[in-house]
């Protein structure tokens, strides 16, 4: 029997097969106040970068104004943005973190 519930499950399955989730770049923005060491810490802690990669990304943001921390499905990108901004504010830093569709 094709129940309404079964039908919705089928539609959901079909949508999953047809289109992979949209991906989002998580972006750090430069400012004049957040310490370089804090930005490196954020990249290591929330984006699993080693010291070398974290330093490279931090310096790119410092010199060019913005840089990509990683690319994630929408809900994961959004959670990381929230976590980074909350942590920065707790430490009194104005660091801005945002996301954009990849
Ligand atoms: N520009 C900051 C400084 O000179 C360092 C910095 C780098 C801040 C990257 C934010 O996303 C950022 N202390």
From TrEMBL:
Binds to the N-terminal domain of the chaperone ClpA. Residues 19-98 form the Adaptor protein ClpS core domain. HAMAP family: ClpS (MF_00302). It comes from the Bacteria. This is ATP-dependent Clp protease adapter protein ClpS. GO terms for molecular function: peptidase activity. It comes from Oxalobacter aliiformigenes. InterPro entries: ClpS, ClpS_core, Ribosomal_bL12_C/ClpS-like. SUPFAM superfamilies: ClpS-like (SSF54736).
């Amino acid at each position: 029997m094709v129940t309404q519930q079964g039908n919705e499950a089928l539609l959901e399955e079909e949508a999953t097969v047809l289109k992979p989730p949209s991906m989002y770049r998580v972006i750090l923005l430069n400012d004049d106040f957040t310490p370089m060491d804090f930005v490196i810490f954020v990249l290591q802690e929330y984006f699993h970068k080693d010291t070398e990669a974290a330093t490279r990304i931090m310096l790119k943001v410092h010199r060019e104004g913005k840089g990509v921390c990683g690319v994630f499905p929408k809900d994961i990108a959004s959670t990381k943005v929230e976590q980074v901004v909350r942590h920065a504010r707790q430490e009194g830093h104005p660091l801005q973190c945002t996301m954009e569709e990849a």
